[in-house]
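input
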Amino acid sequence: CLEALDQALDALESAGLRVLLDLHGTVGGESSEPPCGRHHDGWTTDDWDSEASLEVLRIVAERYAGRISICGIEVANEPSRNLSVEKLASYYEAAVEVVRQAGMRAGEVAVVLPIFDERRTKEVLDRWEN
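output
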């Protein structure tokens, strides 16, 4: 799978394009909805494996840290409103650390931390401000 991404990045770099990598489905899923990679009616927040997801991010970030086409990496996609802000924020803080330690530097590669549900914006911002 990563070999196909390698080839795509080679072609994109040759064309002078920039890429935002997107972990579109975390391990176990970050919601029960199809945008996280699968639809699962029985999904609960306990299904999401944040530690395994961080390991996936580490592997990807280390592999692509030196690629000039990479301008960002999104660490989840459309996280469920059922995930507590504490759990989500803790994952995001760890994800930023993993990505930076892997060599994707601030100022070169943005780390995208989606809230998804705009009704959570105040709740998430309050968590980071306190």
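quick obs: The radius of gyration is 15 Å.
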